[in-house]
Design a protein that fits this description.
Strand order of the largest sheet: 3-6-4-5
Number of helices: 12
Radius of gyration: 22 Å
Shape: globular
Structural class: alpha+beta
Number of strands: 6
Strand content: 5-15%
Length: 360
């Protein structure tokens, strides 16, 4: 089960929030050079369908779960849901169960996920297919960076577990890790992640924690890299979500202004909701659910628009948060006056708006 990890750093303490999700990590496919367009809205819809599918499987309603399965778009959810459907069908239809087991194996899932007793009717056929499919799967995966990522994550955690009043080692290691990750992104995109579901024994290849601990300059580039990789379905959209969340909590003082640097607007000065969804979704998740707060959104010192455009854009931001992301309208205040404060963080791009969150 994929676990979302956010590190809230305040002074010398690290707070860890573990938010378990209902789905496994992204399954793996034979990615070609063709550009895909798997938007965040597609991922959110797939996630909702998958949660409904899991509930139907728990209720032993395989047929309706399968109907939802056929509506899934992203491979991340197709592969993870396949294993659930196999578990649902094994007591009803061995042919269907085997079909979904094979789909999961094609996505890189390890045979250890199967209970040899429960799946006894199709165990031999499943094992035979796994022995053929698994080598083919790994043949198409670049594993050259696995050990480097594992070593960097190990050092990251080792230094933090054994840190003293001297933070120089931590800063130095974060700099090395974020530089490696940025350089990798420039050439290959964000590294594909793999979790214990993909391996015979416990192992994780996940550089997300390195991105969380990177400085703002690197993090800004890494977020863009992660977005591009998520659009191509090379990684889960959960990764850019987690990294973006960390920008607003890791090393940031409470109740200070932070830049809304991922908002996008079109030539008519209307918000581009598709490209701005990551920013808006993260704000809603953080300040409406995880850390309930009253938020104040205002134009930044870099905003040169006239009052009419500012008012229009602020209204669009507020309305989307309320109507599409269920943000409590009583906890949103828009301020037309340009802020006189410098937003936290070291962001290079010109951002038009800032947000200030005051916990309830």
């Amino acid at each position: 089960m994929l676990t979302e990890i956010l590190f809230f750093i305040k002074k010398r303490q690290t707070y860890v929030i573990l938010i378990s999700l209902y789905f496994f990590t992204i399954g793996c496919q034979d990615f070609q050079n063709d550009k895909l367009d798997y938007q965040l809205r597609d991922w959110l819809l797939d996630r909702e369908k998958t949660i409904q599918l899991y509930n139907l499987v728990d209720a032993n309603d395989c047929e309706n779960a399968e109907l939802l399965f056929k509506k899934l778009k992203g491979h991340e959810f197709i592969y993870s849901s396949s294993m659930y459907l196999a578990r649902c069908y094994i007591a009803k239809n061995n042919k269907y169960a085997l079909r979904y087991v094979k789909t999961a194996f094609d996505g890189g899932y390890n045979i250890k996920l199967l209970d040899s007793v429960k799946f006894k009717p199709i165990w031999q056929e499943s094992k035979k297919y796994f022995n053929k499919a698994n080598p083919l799967f790994w043949k198409n995966v670049d594993t050259s960076y696995f050990q480097k990522i594992e070593n960097l994550v190990f050092l990251d955690q080792y230094i933090r577990r054994n840190k003293t009043d001297d933070y120089s080692n931590e800063v130095r290691q974060d700099s090395l890790s974020s530089e490696y990750l940025t350089n990798f992104c420039n050439v290959y995109g964000f590294p594909r992640t793999f979790y214990s579901n993909n391996f015979e024994s416990y192992r994780e290849i996940d550089p997300t924690i390195l991105a969380i601990h990177s400085n703002d300059n690197h993090k800004e580039k890494i977020i863009q890299c992660a977005i591009e990789s998520a659009l191509d379905e090379k990684i889960s959209w959960l990764i850019p979500i987690v990294i973006t969340k960390s920008f607003y909590v890791a090393g940031k003082l409470k109740e200070k202004e932070n830049p809304l640097f991922l908002l996008k607007f079109d030539n008519s000065n209307n918000i581009n909701y598709t490209e701005s969804l990551l920013q808006l979704y993260v704000i809603s998740e953080l300040y409406n659910k995880e850390m309930p707060s009253k938020i104040y959104i205002r134009p930044s010192k870099l905003n040169n628009h006239n009052v009419e455009i500012i008012e229009k854009q602020l209204k669009q931001i507020k309305n989307y948060l309320i109507n599409n992301l269920n943000f409590d309208e009583n906890n949103i205040q828009i301020i037309n006056k340009i802020s006189g404060m410098k937003a936290q963080g070291n962001i290079n791009k010109n951002y038009l708006y800032t947000i200030q969150a005051v916990e309830l």
